[in-house]
Structure formats: structure tokens, C-alpha cells
Amino acid sequence: RQDEKWWHRATAYQVYPRSFADSNGDGVGDIPGIVSKLGHLSDLGIGFIWLSPVFTSPMVDNGYDISDYRDIASEFGTLADMDHLIAEARARDIGIVMDLVVNHSSSLHEWFKAARVTRDCREHDYYIWRDPAPDGGPPDAASAAFGGPAWTYVEEVGQYYYHHFSPAQPDLNWQNPALREEIYDMMRWWLDRGIAGFRMDVISLIGKDVDAGLYEEGPDLHKFLQEMHREVLDGRDIVTIGESWSVSPETGLLYCGRDRGELDMVFEFSHIREGWHPERGKFAPKPFDLRGFKRALFDWQDLTESDGWHALFLSNHDLPRQVSFYADDGAHRVAAAKMLATVLHLLRGTPFIYQGEEIGMTNARFERIDQYRDLETLNHFEEQIALGVDPAEFIAGANRNSRDNARTPMQWSDGAHGGFTSGTPWLEANANAPIINVEGDKADPGGIFSHYRKLIALRREHDIVTHGRTEPLLPDDPAIFAYRRVQEETCAVVIANFTGEPCDVCMPEAVCGAGDALIASHEPRAAIEPMMTLAPYESFAVLIR
Ligand code: ISL
Ligand code: CA
Question: Domain spanning 467-544 has what CATH number?
Fold first, then answer.
């Protein structure tokens, strides 16, 4: 295939450095720790790592607040450590994709430090400033994503600056061409060090027009992405993934259409939002509806069938553990983890695994607010309690959807703190680390790791997994996730029971037939029969020629 890129056939793995592996016992994961675990990742068979931010940062938002884009946070290591990681990964055919956080910087970045003392410097205009309202208050009523107003006043300059996230994350002014050139130059500097691409944090926000109240997918978004492509990305064999909470099937191909000259794919969240309460947000409970979830994923399969590309994921560092959120982290945990992997990895696109997912790590189940570390959870707790919400109800919601669920230390062994650190971890390890850990799971041929390894190999070995068309099956079934992939005369049928009960499935005649077992969570199945009974969370795929 002439137009095939390396990342079409690769599976990605997200490393959240703070929680991955601590090499020096200070309780914080680091780059030498990642290097020490590359064997685990190459065993799994992944093609590239998405590395959450490792740049110099005061860590108000765990590195999504960068104070020096050209250096490494001292708690994570040095630039030399980073170069070493890039080289060691490359030696195992693994690319390193870095996290580009350029909607905002840290308030401790040199640019902002200069910008906040006088209006008469180049850097002042690198940020978004507005005069106070006539009453001295903020220019408008916009609120910030992590709580409180989106505007903060700075005495010295007599103006407010805009921050979509916390006050420690002032938004960069993309309208300023000199600022854009600073960013492009920094991107080229990293690419020249040999990285394999960028994951672009909240990139859909950079074209905003704050005066018009347009933040997501603002008027200049695609103009800037095209400029970035021309200035930095064009002609390099890299991969780019933009994060967008607002992208829809209507706007998806504007980012990743092949002739657009923008990005290769986008992380879109419509399937994730299906699990959130539409008005009360992520901390309020809502029953999961498989039909809406399937519709969201199939819509994107459809959208990317002949243009663009689908970034496939259920988990990341901002989301709960998938086995806890969508399925069962108790009695059926192993089958449930395999089922989620099967349905996602056999879709068309590039799958992203979040660290620990490959062994079925679960939500944290903390009991007290002081066990949490994430500013989003802590700020929302304050706000909600002030509004009269019962603390126990909030903790229940946080146990379901707090970002810290994904951030507890990686569970490597049954040792103290899951073998993550010899010291005291910055966030408590999950109490189930003695039972759920890499060593234990890998020792089991029926374990989750080995299931992931097979799925990753299937994508590399079978053209149909990489390129086949996707046809939803039983779209209205509330319990079964099924589809088929089709390429010329060949098809692969994927069927999964999304429930903890045995389930009878009635398959359309046209997709039935005998073939080869591709993968199975229970007894291998080599045929699709008109009537089948699936065990709780059973999943499998059959290749029919
Ligand atoms: O986590 C969220 C849902 O509660 C989002 O609102 C989140 O802030 C959004 O996904 C943007 O995320 C990205 O940018 C943030 C950072 O905190 C996240 O970790 C990052 O993935 C600000 O840089
Ligand atoms: Ca450390």
C-alpha cells in the first residue's frame, strides 16, 4: 500500500511519567524509570509512546503547565536522559511522541514573568490581556475549566489575563505572529532531536476569539494549524494527534483530512461523553448506555473510512480506568478487560493504550478527599461542598470519574507500592496492587497482557485489521458490541458481550460462516453461528475468507 504510513499499523502506548516508574526512590516517576521499562513495552509490541509532558514545570497540573519548553523537569531527569530515552526507544523500533502544550504556558514561564510586570515588552502580547470592566471586575463572566473565573487581575499592568484552565496556566496569544514563530521553532528543535511526533494538548482552543466568547474551534484554528504544518510538520515522517473536546463528525475532517495539511488524527470524546451526565457533568452518576457509545464510535469509523484517520482510545490520564467505568473490575475483571480491548483494537484506526490498561488496572476507590491530588477534583470538591453537595456523594462521583483514578502508580509487582517506588509515592498505589500487577499478569498465559499482545500483533499482520472497512452489526442491541471488517472477499467478525450476564446472540445469516479463530477471551471460536450464547464479557473475532 503506497499511502500506508507507519502509524497506520502501529499501536500507541501512553506513559504518564509521574506514575510510571520511579528510579531513585523520591516517589515520583522519571525518565530513567521509563528507560528501565522499555522491555515491557517492546514485549507488548507497541509502535510508539505518547509521553505526557516531561518539560520544566511547577507541576500545578502535573506538567500541563510548562515553564521551559526546551528543558526537562528536574524531578523527571535531564535533557541527556531524554535523548537517551529517544535513542533507547528507537533501538527497539519505538517512537517517542511528545506532548505539545501550547494553548497555555505556566505562569512561571519567562515569557509570562516578563509579561506581567509591564505592558511595554515583547512578551506582554504573548498572552491575552483585557482591561477591567467599568466596575473593576473581570472583562466577562467566563469561568475556568478547573473552577473559578477565567480572568485573573495583575496589579502591575492593571489588566486581567485569560486562562482557560487554572490561573497558573495563562493562555498564549496565538494572534501574535512572533509567539507562533517561537512555538514553531521549539517544535523543530524537538523534532530535530529525533522524536516521532506530537500529541497536541487542547489544540482546538488555539484559534479562540475571547471577545466573541468563541473558545473551542474558534475562527482561526485551521488557519493556525495549516501554518504550523507548513512551518514545522511538512515533509517529516512523523505522527500528529490533536486533542479536541469539541470536534464532531461535522468538523472532524477539517483537522485530519488528508489534503488539509493539518494533523494526522484527533482524539475526540463523543464516546467518552456518552458516559457523563449531560447537565451535572462528570462527577454526577449516569447509567451507561451501550447504544449511544457504539453509535459515537461507528460514526467516526464511518467518517474516517476513506479520509482522515481514527484515534481509538477508552482511557487516558484524564479519564477513569476503563475496566471500572465501562465493565466490571470485580469478579469478571479479566474477561471484561479483554472484551474492551477486543472491541476497540479491531476497529479501524490507531489504538492508544493507557499505562496499566494492559493488565486491567482499576479505579482507585479512595475514601477521603485528602487521598486525591488532582487540582480538578480538589477544586470541584470545594465548589460542590459550598453548594451543599454531600461530601460522600462527591467522593462516590470522584471514585467513578476523578482523573486520579488513572494516575495511581503503575503496578509492576506485588512489592510495596506495586513496585513503583522504593520510597513514598506522590499518590497512593491502589490497594489491589498485590493482586493486580505486571509480574502476576504476565505469568498467566490467559492474562490480559497476553491478550493485548495478540491484538497488537493482529494489526501488524493482517491488512484487514489495518485497512478493512467497518460495518456495524446489531447497532441497537443494548448488550452486544459487534461489527465486521471487510476487505475484498475477506471479512473479520468481532462480537462481544458487554454485560456480566450470559447473553444469547442472533446473528444475521449473511455474516455467518466458518473461518479461523483470530482471538478469543474464552474457548476459541472458529465460526459465526446464527445463534450463539456468550459468557459474561466474552469476546472473540473470526476471520472468514
Ligand atoms: O479532564 C478533563 C475532564 O474533566 C478535561 O476538561 C481536560 O481538562 C481536558 O481534557 C483537557 O485536557 C488536557 O489539557 C489540560 C490538562 O489538565 C489535561 O491533563 C490535558 O489532557 C490542560 O492542559
Ligand atoms: Ca524519581
Answer: 2.60.40.1180
